Amino acid sequence: MSKESDLINFSRELESDITDHAKPDGDPSSASFRESALTEIISDDLAACGVLESPVVCHFEGGHGAGSFKVDGYSVPEEDSRLDLFITHYARPSDEVQTINASHIEASFNKLERYFGRAIAGHHRNLEPGLEPYGMTERIHDLRSKFDRVNFLLFTNSRLVQRREKERKQEVNGLAATYDVWDLERFRRLRESGMSYETLQVDLRSLKAGGLPAVKVEQGNNKSQTWVTIFPGSLLADLYDEHGARLLELNVRSYLQARGKVNKGILQTLRDKPEYFMAYNNGITVVAEDVVTGTLHDGTDGILSLKGMQIVNGGQTTASIHRAVKDFGVDLSRVSVQGKITVVEPSRFQELVPFISRYSNTQNKITESDLTANHPFHIGMERVSRREWTPNQQTRWFYERARGSYPTAKMREGTTELKRREFEKRYPPEQRFSKEDLAKFENVWKGLPHVVSRHAQKNFVYFMHELGAIRDGWEPTVEEYRRYIAKGILYKEVQRIVKRNEAITAWRVNVTAYTAALLADKTVRRIDLDRIWREQGLSPSLMQTIESWAPAVFKHLPFIGQRDGKHIEESFKSQACWDYIRSLDWNIPPALDRELISSTGANGDGAAGPDSISGERLTPHDHNNIALCKELSAAQWLTISAWGQKSGELKEWQRGVAYTLASYAAEGWIRLPSVKQAKHGSAMIEKARSAGILNRDE
């Protein structure tokens, strides 16, 4: 199949994906809905691979002619001083791949720049408070002193006519400015192979030595090849001059750091003590798809060329060396940079490169289990999702272990409309969910909406950390999988209700997370997840509770931010915000209370387990055990659970009981432990006290 055919097929996949995303929110044939869906798809994928952090999709446009402006979303990384603004250009599909030319790109970036200028100038004062454009514009204005650069991004489902972009202004409204185009071809590379970078060919034979002197490191396996070398400073400057930030696109942190201002420490060393640069600097880490080796002029072996060269660590060093020459005329003849070059198969770039970068300056061991896409849990989730039918035996849920696997699987099924409909009948678009989605479902259920409100990757890392605390190599059972799905159904229904409530004009993601977390928290996780799985939906009483609580959550959510003088959206990420929302009076309607199960299972999930003893007569010993459990605080029960996991003294189900008792304690023991829970709890207390975890007077 030709490259053009590949791109046409991917364009069809993307259009199908856009339709799936547009369906829940409105008319999937509407251009505005499709453009918004494209924005969500690309921004979500860029967030998943780290290009964006916590992107917020928010369409806003206005003005006329030369004064028109438009923005489709923004991102403010927590640990950086840049602002990301993005705009989307959606083109109606045709039999051939649509193209976007330089004039369209120029016009789009001009509109985005105008919006940025308005935001910096305080244009939010002219907008209606409470609406999403107001919140976005106000936040950018409030944080303007934090930014030292702005990154303008253009998303499009068209193909860039000319890959080398037009040179644009270096500064906008007093900030360093960079411009990035994510067209169809570049997005396809990201989706299909995890590669968001250009495949650069670097010929090294013109060097004085006839190549790059290097020593191959023998590692005892055939999985990777590594060379150590010394890069002449002038070579790095020349490479950066020719290829620019495309050398650094694979590693986001290096990419963005390099596009900022020159490092003063590096510049000082280059100017004053160039011969000490290698001693002072940590060097760079390079990956490549392929390395061509051969004999150099002096008869030794070396590297003659690199295919797909990317600098994944040391981007700021490289860019600063280049700037030192261009802006300050520094002589690089005595500057050398130590380097490590690793050959990685293109199909494994997205898996391995983040870890090569992360561990470049550490001695931490990297194992296959560290690569989250290949974690046994995610493989197990995917496996169960492909074989487990819903109770009506008509559909399955589709777990996307890798980004974009749903549209890829759909296209693999067949390119005809009939084949695609058959696939969607078996795997409905609304029943697809990713690793990041699963992390949201689970952390909301555990009462962590403030964690879910943080960067999607931070929430996912938290989820994986908790998952690793269970046991190595853990795979979900069918029952556990079904309850994950039930939690997903709960989350998605809350999300749907929030989106359709016109009174909720902003912060919908946060309102969804907090409302879903409240449901789990205030029912002490006694929502019947098994029933939700069986019915593949929520009961009328649960739906009515969501419809009642969600607007109230929206009303109270800004309180902590307003009280503490913080930006409202930032306050949603705090424990204080969650504590405040939980402290309000949330009454469980009688109809919902009647359908809650009498007890949670041992793992704290809404499933009636062996602890259920409704109607059983309590003995004095039972009363004593219950009283003993009630003496401990929620923090103490969590301490017992954590100690049991770390020491191996408690089994998984015992730690689950401890976690459940912690939730009861947090509620002020309005829900008493069952006889069996109290029996297990008192035994754990005795174990913990014997080990010195709890004092005898605790």
UniProtKB/TrEMBL annotation:
Pfam families: AIPR, AIPR_N. Transmembrane segments: none annotated. Residues 248-556 form the Abortive phage infection protein C-terminal domain. Residues 39-189 form the Abortive infection phage resistance protein N-terminal domain. Residues 14-33 are annotated as: Disordered. It comes from Candidatus Nitrospira nitrificans. This is AIPR protein. It comes from the Bacteria. Signal peptide: none annotated. InterPro entries: AIPR_C, AIPR_N. Residues 14-26 have a biased composition (Basic and acidic residues).
